[in-house]
Every structure is written in structure tokens, then in C-alpha cells.
Amino acid sequence: MKIGAIDVVIGTHSILQDNVKFKNLGLVITDEQHRFGVNQRSTISEKGKNVDKIVMTATPIPRTLALILYGDLDISIIDELPPNRKKIDTFAVRICHGRQSK
To answer: Whole-prediction pTM value?
Structure first.
């Protein structure tokens, strides 16, 4: 039943199921869009009328790049860190028999 009591839905692939319905779907944001197939992205968009779409990814797939160049997708590139973001230190720690080893 499409009541319209929920304004924002955050979901997984489960919202692609036929029994999931929306009263007034207006915006779909897909993070890591390469994990969704073309048909899946189309299915979610068809659950509304004139649905706006934002797809995000750090690794764009060739089809997306082609749509940016020749189709109907615009691109925004975030090429700098947010202001005041702290540096992230990444390192590996090996554990041997319950004791840390460098």
C-alpha cells in the first residue's frame, strides 16, 4: 500500500523487489553505482515519475563514462578533501600467536 507516510528511505537491493512501492518517489541516490546493473537502476527509477537520479562512485564504469560524454549525465568531481579534515594514517599490524609483531 502506498500511504506516503515515509519521507526518506535508505535501502539495499531489497527495494528493487516488485512488492516495494512508493507513493511519490522523487530522488534516487545510488552510492557505488557500479554494484547495480543497468536494469536494476532502471527498475528503481520506474518506481516513480520523472525521478531525479544521483549516482556516485569512485570507480566509474565505461558505460557511465560514455553517458557522461554522449548521453544525458552530468558529472561533478570532488578532487579535494573537505576543510579541516584530519589526515588518516593507514598501517598494517601483524599478530602472531596473540602478540603484536612489527
So the answer is: 0.56
